[in-house]
Amino acid sequence: MMRSYTAWDRATGRVRQACSGPEATAELSFPGYAILWDVMLDAAREYVDPSTGEPRPRPILDGLEADKTSIQADGLDTATIRGIPAGAIVRIGALQYQMDEPTLEFSTIFPGRYAIHVESWPYLTREILIHAR
Fold first, then answer.
1. What are the counts of helices (DSSP H) followed by strands (DSSP E) for the chain?
2. Mean pLDDT in the chain?
3. Which UniProt keywords apply (predicted)?
C-alpha cells in the first residue's frame, strides 16, 4: 500500500525527506530515522519536536539585529550584529564561522552587498544584508 510519510531525525527533529511510496520500504529506505505517517513536512519550514513526535513550524530567530546595514568599504566602518545564539553558524559568502559569542562585527574594504546568514537549529535561517560603499 502506498502512503505519504516524513522521515525525521529522532535526536534533532530535522526532516530528512518527505515522500510517498510503499509502506513496506519506507523504514528500509531511511534506516535510523523515525517515520511520521500520512504527513509530508516541508524541511525548510517545519520540523518534528523530538520530545513529542509532533510536527511544528520552525520558529523565527528573534532578537537578531544589526546596528546598521550600510557601511563604508574602508576596513574601519563596522556593522555590529547582536543576538547570535551560541553555537550558531554564520555564513558570509563561501566563508563559515561557528559562533561562541553573541556579537559579530563586520567590516570590509571591498564594496558590495553582503548577505550574512545566521543558522541555529531549529530556528529558520535569518539573513542580514550589509551594503558596503
1. 1, 13
2. 95
3. Plasmid
Name every residue whose Cβ is closer than 8 Å to that of residue 112 and which is 6 or more positions away in sequence.
Answer: 73, 131, 132
Q: Are 81 and 64 in contact, with CB atoms under 8 Å apart? A: yes
Cell numbers for 100, please give them.
561562541
The residues, ordered by sequence, that sit 6+ positions from 54 with a Cβ below 8 Å of its Cβ are: 48
Q: What is the C-alpha R_g of the chain?
A: 19
Q: Is the pTM of this model over 0.90?
A: no
SS3 111: coil
DSSP 93: T
How far is Cα 38 from Cα 51, in angstroms, rounded to an integer?
20
Cell of 9: 531525525
**65-132, what's its fold?**
Immunoglobulin-like (2.60.40)
Listed by start position, the domains of the chain span 2-57, 65-132
CB 12 within 8 A of CB 121: yes
CA distance 104 to 78: 10
Q: How far apart are CA 132 and CA 74, in angstroms?
A: 9
